[in-house]
């Protein structure tokens, strides 16, 4: 367990530190970057939020409130509290065209910064839990690495960066946006900012 939670935070730190991010869009103070490596596409969304970083951290690390701003979350329940910094959630998502609805079992690890210059982190990755086996009603998705880094800008504002290493399971939700036919990523980011503020 210690290794899995460490590797969750480490994977997000590694993804955020990669070089070669290309900016694809800037709208309403929301910046979107992509990073391609082999068949893995990573996404980074950055926005300024007018609340203190510790408050953004507490709201973003509680996945049970995520449906309030993310329409890709239909339901979200805590399956297991591993410790105060780690929880395992069961998430269901609406079906995309011609597919069954998807479900995910994810470990969410959060960490407070050790130094003021470091970000708060909320890291997400899929895990296997014997008490939550795949069900025939859903198509089980996998999240390789996703999450938030929250940097403090001042006492009343912060920068929130969302990362997602996109696999074929998450791709249908993003493909429409990346081709420019939909603004779902910007839309979700705007909803997130509205919810936080």
- Helix % is 10-25%
**Termini separation (Å)?**
34 Å
The CATH superfamily title = START domain
Mean pLDDT: 87
Number of helices: 4
* Largest sheet: number of strands, sense, barrel closure: 10 strands, mixed
SSE topology string: HEEEHEEEEEEEHH
User: Which residues form runs of ≥5 with pLDDT under 50?
Assistant: none
Any idea what the radius of gyration is?
16 Å
CATH third-tier fold name:
Alpha-D-Glucose-1,6-Bisphosphate, Chain A, domain 4
- Given the helix and strand composition, which structural class is it? alpha+beta
* Number of DSSP-assigned strands: 10
Residue fraction in strands: 35-45%
Outline, from the CA principal axes? Answer: globular
CATH class: Alpha Beta
Task: Please name the CATH architecture.
Answer: 2-Layer Sandwich
- Counted up, domains total 1
Pfam families: START
Protein name: Acyl-coenzyme A thioesterase 12
GO molecular function, one term: lipid binding
């Amino acid at each position: 367990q210690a290794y899995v939670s460490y590797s969750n935070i480490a994977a997000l730190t590694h993804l955020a530190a990669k070089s070669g991010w290309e900016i694809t869009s800037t709208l309403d103070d929301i910046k979107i970057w992509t990073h391609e490596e082999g068949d893995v596409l990573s996404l980074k969304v950055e926005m300024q939020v007018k609340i203190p970083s510790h408050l953004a951290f507490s709201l973003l690390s509680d996945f049970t409130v995520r449906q309030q701003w993310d329409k890709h979350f239909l339901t979200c329940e805590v399956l297991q509290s591993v410790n105060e910094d780690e929880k395992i959630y069961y998430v269901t998502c609406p079906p995309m065209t011609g597919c069954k609805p998807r479900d995910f079992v994810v470990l969410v690890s959060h960490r407070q910064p050790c130094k003021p210059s470091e970000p708060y982190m909320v890291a997400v990755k899929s895990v296997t839990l014997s008490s939550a086996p795949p069900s025939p009603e859903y198509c089980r998705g996998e999240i390789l690495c996703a999450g938030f880094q929250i940097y403090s800008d001042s006492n009343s504002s912060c920068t929130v960066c969302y990362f997602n290493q996109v696999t074929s399971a998450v791709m249908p939700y993003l493909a429409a946006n990346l081709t420019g036919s939909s603004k779902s990523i910007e839309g979700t980011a705007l909803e997130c900012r509205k919810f936080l503020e």
